[in-house]
Design a protein that fits this description.
alpha/beta, binds iron/sulfur cluster
């Protein structure tokens, strides 16, 4: 029998719709879903081939348990028993905080919710945090501080209604390809673009202003712009007075950041800064799209706040064509940070520190507030805790820190130190090689649920085929929960059942899903949260009258410009910044296995400005050695004259690239500062390839 299932691409958080074709129980292809929201049927190269992961020959089809040093096939009962017993033994010996859970921003809302519940009620540990900690936490922390809500302010379809769009540290054509038709529409309508990026992507056109900021100096550039906007009389004082607090202090914090000083610090011409300030000051409607370039810094939260200050100073909020938009990398990076898989959070974006929030969740889960663990440690901290022996058990679901973690050699030492690691993944990831137990995970086509797009639109994921390994992720969580002694609290068999509990529990929280209806989500093509029973159609534009803080006012937070933790020096004169390649997704565990994607981008390539390459005596076609304070690796390289001369770039989808990066953390968001690593480069004498040592137990035994 042949059927067609409307669902969404599993990669970036534009979550483009597609139709999966299913024949005799197998996904055989995909076509456009023209009625899908936002993308209207469009798909990028990754989305077109996404269906190929479902029945890929590399899928893990059988649970694996390590015996005699090798991972060997096991029955589901054997593997789930081994997984749960390992955690219970550690808990009996060292206490519940010895176990930790690393979740992921690709999980559906329902899996993220259940994983948080499993950690707190099943493992009884405070330690659960998703890989979104490496991705969206600076954006989230800044939005919560400024607006009291962590969600994009408006649908991306409103982009053409903006007079000016400022894109900060976001490589839209490569990381969010299907936003480009909207960019084109906006340009045709006359929208001006200011692009802040040390590497000029294909986004930058001749009529744009490209501020090729020196990596690590975003707060200085934003301070100079805000000051210049104020000098030009561009502050929207009626808006600022009525709807914000802190404006005077925020503007005062930019004192001294005149055009000259800003230019010298940020490495951008005075004329460009002045022109950008003039465009921003003159635009009634404007949007700021920001992403990892400004966020993955040791001052990432401050960086985002400094751009939020500009938006608020201009009154860019609460109406069509206005807003601050965090561009989310993972397909459910938004929902995945709302429903309780963060160490500081309970479902519905409730705070784990707030007695009222704890009481609500405890009551619904049938425990006392005292039984709910408190705030745990964050993602990178938990990995480092393993190195020092404080964490000995680790459940990893939909995360691959062996590739994505900063300072990769240290991350490998951390993973090696974990005594009992259980990995749930559709494919044998680099992290899974360290596992005691590997449980087959589900792809996007095998279970139903919901995800929340980068815009805050909740959309439905429908099951196209049964899980190829018999049990899906929900089944895995339920199986673990039963063995951890909380059977009565995990009686779920479908995503829809979990959705009903999640949405009821979210009522009254910041991320309120209580008015969503499972069937209506499909009929309407998605609904923006908050959606309450009084407002089931949801909320497209946030902050039309009030911001999320109790007094309804937004906060303009003074940002004193600061720099990176480690500056370039004579031994490491350049700055390495990392990013994404159009053809791969995150750690590449899915896309590197799909031939069309792998053929287009088979290996990491360092991009170097031609003048820099000449000074460093690099030879085209010959490899380059890259040395940071953390490591030395060898890569192929290509010239790129759209890069700053003091900056080199590499995409991070391959193991070993992150060996170079710095693991200094932002003090608030605890995000790693991977966008700024001092490096030296020189012609290589060794073979191309990251210098990754052999991993423990790579082979899977028969
Ligand atoms: Fe759309 Fe992103 Fe998927 Fe490409 S990767 S098809 S832009 S959701």
């Amino acid at each position: 029998m042949s059927i067609t299932v409307e669902t969404h691409c599993p990669y970036c958080a534009l979550d483009c719709g597609l139709k999966l074709h299913v024949d005799q129980g197998r996904v055989t292809g995909s076509t456009k879903w023209k009625g899908s929201p936002l993308s209207r049927g469009g798909l990028c190269t990754k989305g077109i081939t996404a269906w190929q992961q479902v029945h890929h020959e590399d899928r893990i089809r059988t649970p694996l348990v390590r015996w005699d040093g090798r991972l060997r096939p096991a029955t589901w009962d054997e593997a789930l028993d081994a997984a749960a017993n390992g955690f219970l033994k550690l808990r009996d010996r060292y206490g519940p905080a010895v176990n930790a859970v690393l979740g992921g921003g690709s999980l559906t809302n329902e899996k993220a919710y259940l994983l948080g519940k499993l950690a707190r009620l099943g493992l009884k540990t405070p330690h659960i945090d998703p890989n979104g900690r490496l991705c969206m936490t600076s954006a989230g922390a800044a939005a919560m501080q400024a607006f009291g809500v962590d969600r994009a302010m408006t649908p991306l379809e409103h982009l053409p209604a903006a007079d000016v769009v400022v894109v900060v540290g976001a490589n839209l054509p490569d990381a969010f390809p299907l936003i480009m038709p909207l960019v084109t529409r906006a340009r045709r309508r006359g929208t001006k673009f200011v692009v802040v990026d040390p590497r000029g992507s294909k986004l930058v056109k001749d009529d744009d202003i490209h501020l090729a900021v020196r990596p690590g100096t975003d707060t200085a550039l934003a301070a100079g712009l805000l000051r210049e906007i104020a000098v030009r009389g561009g502050v929207d004082w009626p808006f600022v007075t009525d709807r914000t607090t802190g404006a005077d202090d925020a503007i005062a914090a930019t004192e001294g950041w005149d055009l000259e000083r800003t230019s010298l610090t940020a490495g951008v011409g005075i004329t460009e800064i002045a022109r950008a300030a003039s465009w921003i000051a003159g635009a009634r409607n404007g949007m700021i799209l920001h992403a990892r370039g400004v966020e993955q810094q040791v001052n990432g939260v401050q960086g985002v706040l400094s751009w939020i200050n500009i938006a608020l100073a201009r009154g860019w909020a609460g109406r069509k064509g206005c807003g601050v938009m965090p561009m989310t990398g993972q397909r459910n990076g938004q929902g995945g940070r709302e429903h309780g898989q963060r160490c500081d959070q309970l479902p519905g974006y409730r705070s784990i520190d707030d007695p009222m929030d704890r009481a609500v969740v405890a009551e619904r889960w049938g425990v006392t507030p005292e039984e709910l663990p408190g705030r745990g440690r964050t993602y990178v901290e938990l990995l480092h805790d393993a190195e020092r022996g404080a964490v000995k058990g680790m459940l990893v679901m939909s995360a691959n820190p062996a590739v994505s973690g900063p300072n990769g050699a240290r991350i490998r030492r951390c993973l090696d130190a974990v005594e009992h690691m259980v990995v749930v993944d559709p494919f044998m990831s680099e992290t899974a090689r360290y596992a005691s137990v590997v449980l087959p995970g589900s792809t996007f086509a095998e279970e139903d649920g919901t995800i929340t797009t980068t815009e805050g639109r909740v959309v439905r994921i429908d099951q196209a085929v049964p899980p190829i390994a018999i049990r899906g992720d929900l089944d895995v969580i339920r199986g673990l929960a039963h063995r951890l002694g909380v059977r009565d609290k995990f009686d779920f068999h479908t995503g829809r059942e979990v959705f009903e509990e999640l949405k009821a529990l979210s009522a009254g929280g910041i991320a309120d899903y209580s008015g969503l209806d499972w069937d209506a989500l499909r009929d309407k093509g998605g609904v923006f949260w908050p959606a309450t029973t009084d407002n089931p159609d949801g909320t497209e534009i946030l902050h039309t009258e009030r911001f999320g803080h109790p007094d309804g006012l937004a906060r303009m937070v003074p940002v004193v410009p600061s720099g990176p933790s480690t500056l370039p020096d004579a031994d490491h004169p350049l700055v390495l910044t990392t990013g994404r390649h159009r053809d791969h997704y995150l750690s590449g565990n899915q896309t590197r296995r799909i031939p069309a994607q792998a053929d287009r981008a088979p290996a990491p390539i360092l991009e170097v400005h031609p003048r820099t390459a000449a000074i460093m005596r690099l030879v085209e076609g010959e490899p380059v050695e890259v040395t940071s304070h953390q490591a030395t690796i060898t890569l192929g390289w290509i010239p790129n004259d759209r890069l700053r001369r003091d900056t080199v770039f590499v995409a991070w989808h391959w193991e070993g690239v992150n060996d170079l990066t710095d693991d200094a953390l932002d003090p608030i968001s605890r995000i790693a500062a991977v966008k700024h690593t001092p490096v030296a480069i020189r012609p290589a004498v060794t073979t191309v390839g990251p210098s990754v040592p052999a991993l423990r137990g790579e082979a899977v035994g028969a």
